Hints:
Layout: E1 14-18, H1 24-30, E2 41-45, H2 49-57, H3 61-68, E3 75-79, H4 87-98, E4 101-106, H5 110-114, E5 125-129, H6 134-137, H7 143-149, H8 161-181, H9 189-201, H10 209-216, H11 220-232, E6 236-239, H12 246-251, E7 255-258, H13 261-267, H14 280-300, E8 306-311, E9 317-324, E10 327-333, H15 345-353, E11 358-363, E12 369-371, E13 374-378, H16 379-387
Parallel strand pairs: 1-4, 1-5, 2-3, 3-4, 10-11, 11-13
Antiparallel strand pairs: 6-7, 8-9, 9-10, 12-13
Helix pairs in contact: 7-13, 8-13, 9-10, 9-13, 10-11
Amino acid sequence: xxxxxxxxxxxxSFFLFGGRATxxxxxxxxxxxxxxxxxxxxxxxxxxxxxxREFNLRPFRLTERILALKKKPKFIVIDEIQKxxxxxxxxxxxxxxxxxxxxxxxxxxxxxKHGSANLLAGRAFxxxxxxxxxxxxxxxxxxxxxxxxxxxxxxxxxxxxxDKIRYLNSYIHxxxxxxxxxxxxxxxxxxxxxxxxxxxxxxxxxxxHSKIARSAGIDYKSCQRYFEILEDTLLGFHLPAFSMSIxxxxxxxxKFYLFDLGVARALAGLIDVKIQPATYSFGRCFEHLxxxxxxxxxxxxxxxxxxSYFHSKDGLEIDLILQKGQKKILIEIKSKRKTISDDLKxxxxxxxxxxxAKGFLLSLDKTARKEDGIFILHWQEGLKKxxxxx
Length: 390
């Protein structure tokens, strides 16, 4: 197993959320659980139909089972907790009254949030798991393959291109069947299916809900709700527009990025189309990659940057802005292997209004340099510098 960046607590209860197939169970079984003896952890897998049925009908059975054990376990692991959210009330009781710790995984927060589930009122840490990052993959990272097929862990167990395509196409069907239909998030699945294809095509673009709704054959409110479902089922994230005013920021349309490049291309129906370097498609995929990597590192390293993009009325754009208090980092992303001074134009103009902001041009150019106070770095080295990792 490739070691993961997430470092879940070994002394306090926690949630571990992540999209399907990001490796939550594998991480707990092969990396996190190395710190415990087998009899110190009690596992419950709610993907097993019988256990899901039992704990939904009789959640109190969890208390009976735990108290019946000869030795109190250090941790109770419950996989896919959203399938039996009533267990959270029982977990709350056992944490508070019996000093038992829980590791709770989930691939959807929607059922928990909208079902008024007990999220343990601060008694559990919250972690997230994503597709593999370049820091985790190390020498296994291959740009062309990542842009084409993404970085879900299972992809690296498949060698044939056809198998990778089959896997990503089946991933979409599994998501629809197990996450959307079985959890009864949407009653009529067909409009959502059409929406997913359009969402894949609009990945990384400024959202125009009216246009997307027309293309998908749905109404405006359904379009907004469907994007919320994608975010709640951890299939993507919104990137808001930057503004010094919170009110103005809320009035500007966000962008939406799907959580994995391969899944995005499969949704758009493009997974079997090869990405050619130095094309518009290559540039969009590369921008998606860098922003997704920044998003993942921000979560893993708990740097707590607010992420946004900048787009002015006259077309001036900055791909990514990281902000924490008064600190701002402006990031322009180019898929070029050789950058020139003209590529800094947007950064220079925006920096005039944000004099204290740091500027970065991240690209495929391996010649590191600095021009007019702006760092010009290969994208991997740039992200390492920004997030202060070696």
